Amino acid sequence: MPHIVLAEVTASVSELKRNPMGTVAAGEGAPVAVLNRNEPAFYCVPADVYEAMLERLEDAELNAIADARADEPVVKVKLDEL
To answer: How far apart (Å, rounded) are the C-alpha atoms in residues 2 and 22?
Structure first.
């Protein structure tokens, strides 16, 4: 069964074991698909890319909450009343 590889750079598990930092560096900041028996097992991304992905996911979740609450009534409050 064919698999879609969602990265331009690939490495085998044995290459990753032999030189983990070199494998990450080979992606030059982009994801590296790590293959096991020519099938993607996982993707290796630099820490800053992973952190940016998590921030975007959090933003998407917060937007979904805001969209769900958009039709709720607005309650005006003064800071002195809090």
So the answer is: 27
pLDDT in tens, 27-43: 999 999 999 999 999 99
Q: Assess if residue 44 is contained within a domain.
A: yes
Give Cα 70 to chain centroid, integer Å: 27
- Tell me, yes or no, whether 27 lies in a domain: yes
Residue 78 lies in a domain: no
Sorted by sequence, the CB contacts under 8 Å of residue 9 that are 6+ apart come out as 26, 27, 28, 30, 31, 32, 33
Cα dihedral 63, 64, 68, 69 in deg (nearest 10): -30
- Digit-coded pLDDT (tens) for 2-14: 889 999 999 999 9
Q: What is the percent of the chain where pLDDT is above 70? A: 99
* Beta-carbon-side half-sphere exposure of residue 6 (alpha carbons within 13 Å): 5
